[in-house]
Every structure is written in C-alpha cells, then in structure tokens.
Amino acid sequence: MSQRNLNLAEARTEQRDRLASLIAQLTPVPGVNRTAWPGLVCYRSDRPTVLDKILYSPALCIVAQGAKQARLGDRILRYDPMRYLAIGAPLPAQSQIVEATKARPFLSLTMEVSSAALSELLVELGEAPPDSVWNGSPPLGASRLDGRLLDALIRLVEATTDPTEIRILGPALQREVLYYALCGEQGHILRLASLREGFSPGVSRTLHHIHMHLDERMTVAELAKIAGMSSSSLHEAFKAMTTLTPIQYIKQLRLNQARQVMLEEGASAAEAAFKVGYESPSQFSRDFRRHFGLPPRQYLESRS
Question: How far does CA 268 lie from the centroid of its chain?
Fold first, then answer.
C-alpha cells in the first residue's frame, strides 16, 4: 500500500472511531436514543439480536461499530462501519444485529430523509424529476461509506451536543449530508424518496393518508377512493411498491408503532393498541404475537 493510501486509511479509521465515540456519548441507554436534531436517532445494543420485523421509512442508516443485516425477500444486505444502508420508500423488512458485545457495543445512527429537503436540493442541482414511475426492485441498497459523507455526518452529530450550534448549523449540515449521499452509489434510491409520486400518485396519496390517520378505521374501498383507483389496481400497485397489500401494510405499521410506544414511552399493551387504532386489546395481543413471535409483555421483558 502506498504512503498516500496508508494515510487515507488511517484518516478513515480515525473518522469511524470519532463517530463511534460520539454515538456512545449520545446513547446512555440501550435501544433508541433521540438526538436534538429531528429525525436523527442513535442506537446502541450490547449484544446481537434475533431477526426482527421492521417497517423502514426513507432514511440513511450508518453503523459506527458492529454490524447489522437487513433482509427483504431473498435479498440480504449487510451494513457496518464500511457500508451504509439507503432506503428510498416505506418498506417492510427484517433486520438483525450480528456483531455486538458489551466491550464493543453495536452503535448506529439513522437519519430520516425529508422529501422536501431532497426536492429543494435537486432543484438547485438543476435536476428534473423522472418522467416515469419507479418499476424496479424495492428501493433498498447498501454501499461503501464515502469519506466526505462520513465527515459531514460526524459534524452533524457533533452539532447535536450544542443547542445553539445545531439550531444555527443543523439545516446546512443536513443539506451537506444529503448532497454527498445523492452523489453516491445509492443516489438513485434517494431521488425516489424525494418524489412523493415516485411510484404512483395513487399509492402516494394512499400512503400519506394511512400515516396521517393510522388510529382511524380504514377499508380498502375507502383507500381506493382516495387513490383514485379501483381496489384491484390499488392492491397491485401498492404491493409492487411495498411488497404488502394495503391492509397488511396498515397492520404492520400499527404493530411497529405500538411496539415503539411501549418501548419508548412505557405504555401498556392496551394503551399502545388504542393509540395506533386497535379497537380490541386481545386482538392486538394476538397480532403482536404472530408478528413478533412473543406476547407484548414477554417481548418487552426480552428487550429489558
């Protein structure tokens, strides 16, 4: 290895160590730890986890220490300090932390991708939106973490430790992160996240309605009317985008949000069930067990 490449490798190692140190400071407890910047979340685990079901949102996921796998159908994507994960649309998947110990815990951060921020940046870059809807595989990809992207992420995380600094510099730092991500190998996936109608206008309207009215009763016929599509057309287009039917998607979203409410807010199973739109706590418990493999109480105990 040349001296220049050796120096670059050493600098990159220092960057990763710095990011791991920052995340360690921002994760006083295992699990999800929110930062002072909206949509930027840090996570710590002292042990590997079992394969767990998750509903991804458009985001960048960066591992500073340890390793994790995401599974979608027959695709398995590993991300670690060398590789990051990009998600371009709401997707049901499975994830698993595969490398973590008490001495070297799994440390990661997730930055939600704002469609408004991405759209504004693309306009300034002089890019026109695609003239056709997405028809490829579900938008999920892992790529090598570029040094410029890593540096921008470090400065964003550093700023969250100072209320004034994050308030003044946060928007510009987030913009820089998004710019470097757009310039990277997964830029096409992030461009999709910038377009609310990247797949289909009807599916986009349906997703927006589901997320805004999750605690309300919804039927396929009502959703099809909102989409301006027939029930069968919505079913086909929605499944092509998310790999789930509308009703399956609503159920998974409710279960994942209820789990989050219980883990982060200490709510009981019944409280969480009603908060996300379940009318029957017993039905919620049955669905939760089928989805996560354990009843709510046992699941929470396994995470404590």
Answer: 25
CATH number at residue 229: 1.10.10.60
| Contacts (Cβ under 8 Å, ≥6 apart) of 139 | 86, 87, 88, 89, 91, 189, 192, 193
Domain that holds residue 223: 201-303
Q: What angle do CA 141, 143, 144 make, to 5 degrees?
A: 165
* Same structural domain, 132 and 257: no
DSSP string, 221-282: HHHHHHHTS-HHHHHHHHHHHHSS-HHHHHHHHHHHHHHHHHHHH---HHHHHHHTT-S-HH
Residue type, 281: P
Q: Retrieve residue 58's tokens.
A: 């458009």
Residues 75, 83: Cα–Cα separation, whole Å: 16
Q: Which residues pair with 196 in a beta bridge?
A: none
Same-domain status, 146 and 221: no
State if pTM tops 0.90: no
Tokens for 93, please give them: 């998947």
Residues 288, 166 share a domain? no
Which tokens go with 106? 């799994």
What is the CATH number for 158?
2.60.120.10
Q: How many domains does the chain have?
A: 2
* Alpha carbons 265 and 260: distance in angstroms, whole number: 8
Q: Decide: 57 and 111 in contact? Cβ < 8 Å.
A: no
d(CA 108, CA 26): 11
Buried b (16+ CB within 10 A) or exposed e, 144-153: ebbeebbbbb
Q: Average pLDDT by consecutive 10-residue portion of the chain (304 residues)?
A: 64 89 95 94 93 86 96 88 90 90 96 86 75 63 93 96 96 95 90 64 82 90 92 87 86 90 88 93 93 89 77
